[in-house]
Specification:
The complex is a heterodimer of chains A (331) and B (330). By secondary structure, chain A is of the alpha/beta class. Chain A is built from eleven helices and twelve strands. In chain A, the strands form two sheets. Chain A has an eight-stranded mixed beta sheet with strand order 6-7-8-3-9-10-12-11, with helices on both faces. In chain A, strands 2-1-4-5 form a four-stranded antiparallel beta sheet, with helices on one face. In chain A, a hairpin with a 2-residue loop joins β4 and β5. The longest helix of chain A is centred in the middle third of the chain and has 18 residues. The radius of gyration of chain A is 21 Å and the shape is globular. Chain B is of the alpha/beta class. In chain B, 31% of the residues lie in helices and 22% in strands. Chain B has eleven helices and twelve strands. In chain B, β9 and β10 form a beta hairpin. Classes of the chains: A alpha/beta (331), B alpha/beta (330). The interface between A and B is large, with 45 and 40 residues.
């Protein structure tokens, strides 16, 4: 197998508070291959966005990366100085945020913002940058791009703005695009357009995508592999089809069952009792144990590590640890 | 169908979005109106769940507000249990007890300074249904009905998570023993696993108390799961009403088809989503004729001139000129 483009190992992000230190991410590890779309799912507070922010070094103080490694093409980027990191951010890693209105500057035209970004990262003339910008806007599907490029962000609708943000993220031809809930603020009909554009354009340029979302439908359609986060830990990673149809982790299974679908016939949705624990009250052992119907002795004492299984799947659950699982008489 | 519980005819709501008078005089502008809903008619039978779906700006919530009397309609009538409501005078007190509403955001809909018991008992007190001691007992009982514990009456809303707060909002809605509950995006602010809990609870309560729901949502899979009939709104007009399961297999209106094509599905059917062309137009200056015509693949001249009227279809009704030309869904 090729070397991963991005490799995250045992990443820990902590937020010191008056009442003690909260671990927002607790030893998170995953890889993204070149050109791959990795979906990152989980419920609110699971640590999806923090993972994205940690990779590009945008954790707001007092939060900090307490330990672990982030490597981009083998080179560590988690301990870089701010100036060095700024060269990577935008140039090698592009970012698409949830709300297109707040990620564009309302006081500058789209042209000014795109040209500035292009010239920051690529050595070219203003006219050349403008030509690139127009081509890019055209590519993300903005009609009459040559004319509209001189408009301000408020002239564009939500969907069009998100297209501009995608153009902005891609203008320096990054190797990785982190898209944090890129379609959550949009209507379904527009959402499908944006996902399409993001997917096609990244495939065209060979950019890998880390797609952060809580919408499993979007993941199912877009991602190659998916990582499921729960309470700041990775519960399961695997190819998207397998994870959706035959999830290994009881949490993933519950999560999938709780989503109403357009085709299934069922009267009741599967329901996971309770809610995700708060960061200051994560239970000992497996974080999911109070809600898990299959929990047995080791789940309450030891935290399960990510186990590599066949077919590129990984799961953090004692049920799949053959040595431990023999202790349970489960059926 | 038996006598419908709620009947809405020709409901229209316009908002005045004009500039101030002086600006209009100086800039010689006309008055501007935003038509949030135009000529919306539907019926809800007792015990069913009728859902309204549509994109943002399609007027879903405006209908909900008019139905519960939070907003007077500009035209049209609302009939509840055979009694026509005089909308200019507001909903009469005798009927108001029988309506309740569950809002989208459980962080905004509960008063943070009130204890949960008081919040739940407020409708009981307002309508004078019980004495205060019984009301407190009733609040405790309702908390158990919605899956919380009776001891929670003395807690404050901030002590609960989003899903638990939505349960409290449901308990409050139930306390005046209503027959009809308007649910405006009840699970949009919640995570999927919590959403499943709330949707299951809403169904259980419906069976137990014989409730009728008007469910407003933009999430088609939630709507499909919960409702018996669905109305699809586009730019303030109902474009299609149909039985829930049928709508997803045999959509009649081109907009409904487009919307269904756009929904990402977990089923991994391998079906390539057809991205929709264009976006919802500005409701201040909607397109002439059928409001959907600029995005419609089946558009012809008549669509640009005439507003289509609803006509019956095998699964309900739809408002589209091209209906007889639409090939049945494959």
């Amino acid at each position: 197998m090729a070397d991963p483009l991005l490799s995250v190992r045992d990443l820990v992000v902590e937020f010191p508070t008056r009442r003690g230190t909260l671990r927002a991410l607790d030893r998170v590890s995953f890889d993204i291959m070149p050109g791959e779309v990795l979906g990152m799912v989980g419920e609110s507070g699971a640590g999806k966005s923090i993972t994205g922010a940690a990779i590009i070094g945008l954790i707001e103080p007092p939060g900090r990366v307490a330990s672990g490694e982030i490597r981009l093409k083998g080179e560590r980027i988690d301990n870089l100085r701010p100036e060095a990191l700024r060269k990577i951010r935008g140039k090698r890693i592009g970012m698409v945020f949830q709300d297109p209105l707040t990620s564009l500057n309302p006081l500058y035209t789209v042209a000014q913002q795109l040209i500035e970004t292009i010239r920051t990262h690529i050595d070219c003339s203003e006219a050349e940058a403008r030509k690139r910008a127009v081509a890019l806007l055209d590519r993300v599907g903005i009609p009459a791009a040559a004319r509209r490029i001189d408009d301000y962000p408020h002239h564009f609708s939500g969907g069009m703005r998100q297209r501009v943000v995608i153009a902005l993220a891609l203008c320096a031809e990054p190797e990785l695009v982190i898209a944090d809930e890129p379609t959550t603020a949009l209507d379904v009909s527009v959402q499908s357009q944006i996902i399409e554009v993001l997917k096609d354009i990244c495939a065209e340029r060979g950019a890998a995508v880390m797609l952060i979302t809580h919408d499993m439908g979007v993941i199912a359609e877009t991602a190659d592999r998916v990582a499921v986060l729960y309470a700041g830990r990775v519960a399961e990673i695997g190819p998207v089809r397998e994870v959706i149809t035959e999830a290994l982790h009881p949490y993933t299974r519950g999560l999938m069952g709780s989503i109403p679908t357009l085709t299934q016939e069922s009267d009741r949705l599967v329901q996971i009792p309770g809610a995700m624990p708060r960061l200051n009250a994560i239970p000992q052992g497996c974080a999911f144990n109070p809600r898990c119907d299959k929990a047995f002795a080791p789940c309450f004492t030891d935290r399960p590590e990510l186990l590599a299984l066949e077919g590129g799947r990984q799961v953090a659950c004692w049920l799949h640890d053959t040595a431990k699982a023999q202790e349970v008489p489960h059926g | 169908m038996a006598e419908p519980l709620l009947k809405i005819e020709g409901l229209t709501r316009r908002f005045d979005v004009s500039k101030p008078w002086l600006n209009r005089v100086i800039e010689r502008d006309e008055k501007q109106f935003l038509t949030a809903n135009a000529d919306v008619s539907f019926e809800i039978a007792k015990g069913e769940t009728f859902a309204l779906v549509g994109e943002s700006g399609s007027g879903k919530s405006t209908i909900a507000k008019m139905v519960v009397g939070l907003l007077p309609p500009s035209a049209g009538t609302i009939t509840f249990a055979g009694q026509t409501i005089d909308t200019s005078a507001g909903i009469p007190r005798s009927l108001r007890r029988r309506f309740q509403m569950i809002f989208q955001d459980p962080f905004a809909s509960l008063n943070p300074r009130w204890r949960v018991g008081e919040i739940i008992a407020e409708p009981i007190r307002t309508f004078g249904l019980m004495n205060p001691t019984d009301a407190r007992k009733e609040a405790a009982r309702l908390l158990e009905v919605v899956g919380l514990s009776a001891g929670d009456v003395n807690k404050f809303p901030h002590e609960f998570s989003g899903g638990q707060r939505q349960r409290i909002a449901i308990a409050r809605a139930l306390s005046s023993k209503p027959e009809f509950i308007v649910c405006d995006e009840p699970t949009s602010a919640l995570d999927v696993s919590v959403q499943a809990q709330i949707l299951n609870l809403m169904r259980d309560l419906q069976d137990e108390f014989g409730l009728t729901y008007l469910l407003i949502s933009h999430d088609l899979s939630v709507v499909r799961h919960m409702s018996s009939r669905i109305g699809v709104l586009y730019l303030g007009r109902l474009v299609e009403i149909a039985q829930a399961k049928k709508l997803f297999t045999e959509p009649q209106h081109p907009y409904t088809r487009m919307l269904l094509d756009a929904v990402p599905d977990l089923a991994l059917s391998g079906r390539r989503r057809r991205p929709v062309e264009g976006e919802i137009p500005n409701p201040i200056s909607p397109p002439s004729g059928c409001a959907f015509h600029p995005r419609c693949p089946l558009v012809h001249d008549r669509c640009k001139r005439e507003v289509p009227l609803p006509r019956p279809t095998p699964i309900g009704q739809a408002a589209c000129h091209a209906l007889d030309r639409v090939a049945p869904a494959a």
